[in-house]
Amino acid sequence: MSDDPPKAPGLLATVLAPVKSTFEEVGMLGDLAFRSIVWGIRPPYRVPLLVAQMEFVGVQSIFLVGLVGLFTGMVFAVQTVYGFRRFGAENMVGGVVALTLSREMAPVLTAIMVSARAGSGMAAELGNMRSSEQIDALETMAVNPVQYLVVPRMIAGVVMVPVLALIFFLVGIGGAWAVGVWGLSLDPGIFADRIKTMLKPSDITQGLIKALVFGFAVTLIACRHGYFASGGAVGVGQATTKAVVWGVVGVFVLDYIITSMLTEI
Amino acid sequence: MLDAADAHVVVEGLVKIYGDRTILHGVDMIIGRAETLVVIGGSGAGKSTLVRHLIALERPTRGRIVIDGTDIASLNDVQLAKARRRFGMVFQKYALFDSMTVFDNVAFPLREQTKLSERDIREKAMTKLKELGVDHAATLTPAQISGGMAKRVGIARALVMEPELLIYDEPTSGLDPVTSRTVDSLIEEMRERFGVTSVVITHDMVSAFDIADRIAMLIKGRVVAQGSPAEVLAVDNADVQNFVRSSGVDVTRFEHRGTRKTAAELALRARERKSGRVE
Ligand SMILES: Nc1ncnc2c1ncn2[C@@H]1O[C@H](COP(=O)(O)OP(=O)(O)OP(=O)(O)O)[C@@H](O)[C@H]1O
Ligand SMILES: [Mg+2]
């Protein structure tokens, strides 16, 4: 063929492009996080907006988080009994389930549920406000949009995800107990005793710290994608997808970082 | 002629580039205090982009915007917020808050920026809604009202603060002719009663000539004509002439409010003055 092949971008540039955009993304998130902390400290404190967001992120998620917690606890009971029965250690089941739920399952799955439910909603709402110039209108009326829109959402995330994770944990234990004791005829006394002996306060703390960080990350990512959305309805749709996808990825990355920092082996 | 020293707003060499597209190619503009400047020009000419710079919703790629002698790029967040209390804007796409009722939308700037009692706020907001003929919709949400009503609520929300500088992005588009004239007289009234400086973007040439002290015509990101309505009509530029002709306004019959001269007469006199044959 006589045609010259289309000029390919330099190999280095191609390889480095995702690295560059990752750094840009982190920079953007850092900038928004910084601005929301600065504007969160500065009065006025918009209590009604915060209450509305807590209701949206927290109260409206209780049923969903409880449901997922219940089934997660039930599944874990079955799986651990199955595994531990092989070497006759089924009296450990209560403790093992409690450890897994408190350190991993409750914060991670709660954050994922909140990202899917509240994070997508936030990204869609803020994205719509951006594309219909409502954010510009706020700014024109001398109201800082980060303070008005982002701060209440982030505080709600930071406060409500730990609360929801705790609910997840308690309901999960209940589910495991129900399946273990009623379904698989474990001894209820031993089940409870093993939870008491194996579960240390630090396990609960680690779970709550994770939940708090995840709550911050998931709402920050959702707000970032909504707040800076562009390109009309298509752009808002993409923002919503990105908010959930990167929110979930962020949870897993942070989970590893926090776990390796807080766990002494 | 206006000079930059006592102007309300001065735009100097404003260039705006999005990606690799240049939207504004060096716009210069002076807007006097208590004057109404009408910006006309084709779709996509950059009119909205231009006025968004005036209230710092966009950052200039090059050039500067000086309001009351201060370059607005030099203001920090808090100073800018303070300066914005003196600005108002009617957005092309209304930009009403859809989480609030019509009434709360209009009350919003009063609640945010003043210490008025809730009773005074109600009074003021309802008065503005009534003037625009949308008071019956006060309890509805923006999703429940028509486009023309939303436009009027947007105007009410901008007017209720009685700011010093009001920017209207197509305030009469989508309104019936009678309501359009009501909006024109409201713009006039704001100026007469409160000495408001107005920048009005419009495609409606009747209202352009009705309310303008001066007209600026923007084509493809460049100001091709700027001056009194008569001066603009007299500009010897094919684009300008074409635009006026296509607008359907009969310039030979149209009378300017202030001088009681038809636009055509004004144009003729402007042309004569220009060529030195002053009567
Ligand atoms: N945020 C943006 N990013 C990229 N391009 C933009 C952006 N905003 C506006 N533009 C482009 O700038 C040009 C001018 O847009 P603008 O909205 O200022 O036009 P306009 O004169 O107000 O038109 P109309 O009369 O239709 O409202 C358009 O071509 C538009 O595509
Ligand atoms: Mg426009």
Give a description of the structure.
The complex is a heterodimer of chains A (265) and B (279). Chain A has 265 residues and is mostly helical. Chain A has one domain (46-262). Helix content of chain A is 83%, strand content 0%. Chain A is built from nine helices and no strands. Chain A has helices spanning 11-41, 47-57, 62-85, 93-131, 134-140, 145-183, 188-198, 201-227, 232-262. In chain A, helix 1 crosses helix 6 (145-183) and helix 2 (47-57) runs parallel beside helix 6. The longest helix of chain A is centred in the middle third of the chain and has 39 residues, at 93-131. In chain B, a hairpin with a 2-residue loop joins strand 1 (7-18) and strand 2. In chain B, strands 6-7-8-3-9-10 form a six-stranded mixed sheet, with helices on both faces. A four-stranded antiparallel sheet of chain B has the order 2-1-4-5, with helices on one face. With 279 residues, chain B is of the alpha/beta class. The two termini of chain B are 20 Å apart. Chain B is 38% helix and 23% strand. Chain B has a single domain, classed as P-loop containing nucleotide triphosphate hydrolases (Rossmann fold). Chain B is built from ten helices and ten strands. The interface between A and B is medium-sized, with 13 and 24 residues.
Write the layout of secondary structure elements.
The complex is a heterodimer of chains A (265) and B (279).
Chain A: H1 11-41, H2 47-57, H3 62-85, H4 93-131, H5 134-140, H6 145-183, H7 188-198, H8 201-227, H9 232-262
Helix pairs in contact in A: 1-6, 2-6, 3-4, 3-6, 4-6, 4-7, 4-8, 4-9, 6-8, 8-9
Chain B: E1 7-18, E2 21-32, E3 36-40, H1 47-54, E4 62-67, E5 70-71, H2 77-84, E6 87-90, H3 102-113, H4 118-131, H5 147-159, E7 165-169, H6 177-194, E8 197-201, H7 205-211, E9 214-219, E10 222-227, H8 229-234, H9 238-246, H10 263-274
Helix pairs in contact in B: 3-4, 3-5, 4-5
The structure holds adenosine-5'-triphosphate and magnesium ion.
